[in-house]
């Protein structure tokens, strides 16, 4: 993939060398570090995820914006900044030009990470769960910017589906409309983020990282709209959140949000926080299990993609 380097988009020396050599590289988002986990566990997890990529033989590229510059691959000091610096913003793709102009710092969401990774020439990105269409969307039209970015960005995203607080069926329909390919990794149903399955079927199933890489080559050979490939990798059943507990606490969270009038950008952190508290931290552990599995699979796909 063609890469772009500007004063506002700077790969680390390690990432730049890997890309120049055609070596496998995996992009990682930084929002989970700055906003998704408490200190000091957030920094421990950030190092762990990079370690998973390295153990598989690939190069990790954690992405964040520091002082207005998009950093593709962070050194230890930069990783620590993302983990402990107060007041870091959460940046979507639309926020990147503003952050650059104002020399702001922030962690990148799925949309921003996908965009920046693709601009840098990285094809594979591992995350936990995507954003999507919110429940009650027929009334409020609340939809994550992730979907729009994935509909016009050539990136392969390994994820455990979309966050289960969302309208999963509507999200899958939206992805179909926008031409985004979804393939279940060793599953016939779309993962449920905290849950092994959402119950919603997927049209395509793949069994190996090599098959994912072959689909990516097919995308390039056929041309057309620059859309993403979503590799939906479920959290193992023995690591998932108890489904009955999940459904009960989520129902309570939705009722609380309605009662308190929580809407817009505040709804996702409200519901996710409620789930963490209501499950005694079990939802967080299921989330981390999913991210670890997705990171390992993304590294294997990157290796397959780097082979001619």
Automatic annotation (TrEMBL):
Keywords: Glycosidase, Hydrolase, Lyase, Manganese, Metal-binding. Substrate binds at residues 90, 110, 144-146. InterPro entries: Indigdn_synthA-like, PsuG. The active site is at 29 (proton donor), 163 (nucleophile). Pfam families: Indigoidine_A. It comes from the Bacteria. It catalyses: D-ribose 5-phosphate + uracil = psi-UMP + H2O. GO terms for molecular function: hydrolase activity, acting on glycosyl bonds. The keyword Metal-binding applies. Binds 1 Mn(2+) ion per subunit. Mn(2+) binds at residue 142. Its EC number is 4.2.1.70. Its cofactor is Mn(2+). The keyword Glycosyltransferase does not apply. HAMAP family: PsiMP_glycosidase. Homotrimer. Catalyzes the reversible cleavage of pseudouridine 5'-phosphate (PsiMP) to ribose 5-phosphate and uracil. Functions biologically in the cleavage direction, as part of a pseudouridine degradation pathway. Belongs to the pseudouridine-5'-phosphate glycosidase family. This is Pseudouridine-5'-phosphate glycosidase. The gene is psuG.
């Amino acid at each position: 993939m063609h890469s772009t380097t500007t004063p506002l988009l700077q790969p680390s020396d390690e990432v730049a060398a890997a890309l120049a050599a055609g070596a496998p590289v995996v992009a990682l988002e930084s929002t989970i570090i700055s906003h998704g986990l408490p200190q000091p566990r957030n920094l421990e997890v950030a190092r762990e995820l990079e370690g998973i990529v390295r153990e598989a033989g690939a190069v990790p590229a954690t992405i964040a914006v520091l002082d207005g510059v998009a950093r593709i691959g962070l050194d230890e000091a930069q990783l620590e900044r993302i983990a402990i610096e107060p007041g870091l913003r959460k940046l979507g793709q639309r926020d990147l030009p503003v952050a650059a102009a104002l020399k702001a710092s922030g962690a990148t969401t799925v949309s921003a990470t996908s965009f920046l990774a693709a601009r840098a020439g990285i094809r594979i990105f591992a995350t936990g769960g995507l954003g999507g269409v919110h429940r009650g969307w027929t009334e409020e039209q609340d939809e994550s910017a992730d979907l729009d970015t994935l509909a016009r960005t050539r990136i392969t995203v390994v994820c455990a589906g979309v966050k289960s607080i969302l309208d999963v069926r509507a999200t899958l329909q939206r992805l179909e409309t926008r031409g985004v390919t979804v393939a279940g990794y060793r599953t016939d149903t779309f993962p449920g983020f905290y849950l092994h399955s959402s119950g919603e079927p997927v049209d395509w199933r793949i069994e190996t990282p090599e098959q994912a890489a072959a689909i990516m080559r097919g995308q390039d050979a056929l041309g057309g709209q620059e859309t993403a490939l979503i590799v939906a990798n479920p959290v193992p059943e023995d690591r998932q959140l108890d489904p009955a507990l999940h459904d009960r606490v989520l129902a309570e969270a939705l009722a609380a949000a309605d009662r308190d009038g929580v809407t817009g950008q505040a709804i996702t952190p409200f519901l996710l926080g409620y789930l963490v508290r209501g499950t005694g931290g079990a939802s967080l552990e299921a989330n981390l299990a999913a991210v670890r599995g997705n990171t390992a699979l993304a590294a294997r796909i990157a290796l397959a993609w780097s082979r001619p």
